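@channel sequence for tomorrow's demo:
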Amino acid sequence: MPEEQPRSAEDARGACPFCKIVSGEIPSRKVYEDDLFVGVLDINPKAPGHTLLMPKEHYPILPMVPVETFARLFTVAKNLGGASARATGAPNLDIFIANGAVAGQQSQHFMVHLIPSPEGGGFRVPEIVPDPAKLQEIFEIFSHNLPIMIQNHFKRNPGLKPGLEAKSDPIPRYADTKVIYDDTAALAIMCKGALGHVKVYAKGEVAKVGELSDSEAVHLFYVASFAATAAFEALKAQGTNIIAGNTEKSFCIDVFPRVEGDGLNFMWNPAPADPSELDKIAEKVRFEMGSGKGSGEKKDGRGEEKPPERSSPKPKSRKSPEREWQEFNLAHQDDVFNISEVKNV
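structure tokens (generated this afternoon):
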């Protein structure tokens, strides 16, 4: 079978249902909009209040999102997710990201799932015991590469480096585990379960994402995103899942490299929601975001009036998420090192 040729930008935009939601061509229950993002209720939710936050631009996967947009994205996600949880009376919020079809990504338009959930979170990790020698090898790669990748990122974007005070490690029982990155705001460890599974913790006593400052939230997701990129080099991952919540009564972000047949499955069985119930929840979320019940007034994630709308940029040629993932990592190969360069730890 001949290889499918990339489609034009116009074709990609015309074929993407979420670009049509952004433009208004497909109706949706919008709960948030600013110059960069749209938030809508999922019509087949995992839980009441399940919200999809997506860039107006057509980015296939998270690594393709520009730096400035990335920083705004997770500020909005924190605030909109909190509004969704309050609107439904849920005590917790899960943030779910799928990069690549193997990770459960069903659309080539990148989005963040904001899912109100019960205390303890709504995702569970299956028990997988990796080979100890392979785990040590992967740990050495991650602990060497991840700090360099983040340092290079801050050199390119010095304005994003968080000026945060040092805080105590909130997870003292993990003191004997494999730390792969540590700074004043974040602690990343290599887990002993699924191969390449990384946990990113906030420093200090932080139980939920809403307790983080905007800069703390953005920084933690940067660390998680770079951990996902490191997994591509170390494990030749075909995708990643990034899942944030308070599964251990402390806020953390789990990063799972994904390959075919890895035994992981974080997808849920969606069920169509009652339209009238969705309408009620949408009103409540908009109210919680500070726009006024039913007012339709558009404000940003801090409740401030948003800048004037700009027209949505047209997307680039359409490629598979896996192809985009490969091209991104090849473009950033100077930030990643081979195992032969890793020093013993």
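heads up for whoever presents: The CA atoms of residues 82 and 210 lie 6 Å apart.
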